[in-house]
Amino acid sequence: MSLTERVWGALTSMIKLEDKVVRQSEIIKAQQTKIENLTERLIKLETTIELLIRASEYKRIK
What we know:
By secondary structure, the chain is mostly helical.
Protein backbone atom coordinates (compact mmCIF):
# COMPACT_ATOMS: atom_id res chain seq x y z
CA MET A 1 0.00 0.00 0.00
CA SER A 2 1.46 3.33 -0.98
CA LEU A 3 1.62 6.43 1.16
CA THR A 4 -1.04 8.22 -0.88
CA GLU A 5 -3.46 5.31 -0.44
CA ARG A 6 -2.97 5.38 3.31
CA VAL A 7 -3.45 9.15 3.44
CA TRP A 8 -6.55 8.86 1.26
CA GLY A 9 -7.91 6.10 3.49
CA ALA A 10 -7.32 8.21 6.60
CA LEU A 11 -9.06 11.21 5.03
CA THR A 12 -12.09 9.20 3.98
CA SER A 13 -12.29 7.67 7.45
CA MET A 14 -12.21 11.14 9.00
CA ILE A 15 -14.96 12.37 6.69
CA LYS A 16 -17.14 9.36 7.53
CA LEU A 17 -16.51 9.88 11.22
CA GLU A 18 -17.40 13.56 10.97
CA ASP A 19 -20.64 12.65 9.21
CA LYS A 20 -21.51 10.20 11.99
CA VAL A 21 -20.79 12.83 14.64
CA VAL A 22 -23.01 15.37 12.86
CA ARG A 23 -25.87 12.85 12.59
CA GLN A 24 -25.53 11.90 16.25
CA SER A 25 -25.56 15.57 17.21
CA GLU A 26 -28.82 16.08 15.32
CA ILE A 27 -30.36 13.04 16.99
CA ILE A 28 -29.30 14.27 20.43
CA LYS A 29 -30.82 17.71 19.75
CA ALA A 30 -34.12 16.10 18.73
CA GLN A 31 -34.11 13.92 21.85
CA GLN A 32 -33.36 16.93 24.04
CA THR A 33 -36.34 18.76 22.54
CA LYS A 34 -38.58 15.77 23.28
CA ILE A 35 -37.27 15.57 26.85
CA GLU A 36 -37.94 19.27 27.41
CA ASN A 37 -41.46 18.87 26.03
CA LEU A 38 -42.14 15.92 28.31
CA THR A 39 -40.75 17.85 31.28
CA GLU A 40 -43.13 20.74 30.58
CA ARG A 41 -46.07 18.34 30.32
CA LEU A 42 -45.08 16.63 33.58
CA ILE A 43 -44.90 19.97 35.40
CA LYS A 44 -48.39 20.86 34.16
CA LEU A 45 -49.69 17.47 35.26
CA GLU A 46 -48.10 17.77 38.72
CA THR A 47 -49.57 21.23 39.13
CA THR A 48 -53.03 20.02 38.16
CA ILE A 49 -52.84 17.09 40.57
CA GLU A 50 -51.69 19.33 43.43
CA LEU A 51 -54.52 21.77 42.76
CA LEU A 52 -57.07 18.96 42.70
CA ILE A 53 -55.73 17.50 45.95
CA ARG A 54 -55.86 20.88 47.67
CA ALA A 55 -59.36 21.53 46.33
CA SER A 56 -60.57 18.17 47.65
CA GLU A 57 -59.01 18.89 51.05
CA TYR A 58 -60.68 22.30 51.10
CA LYS A 59 -64.08 20.73 50.36
CA ARG A 60 -63.59 18.16 53.15
CA ILE A 61 -62.91 20.91 55.70
CA LYS A 62 -66.17 22.69 54.89
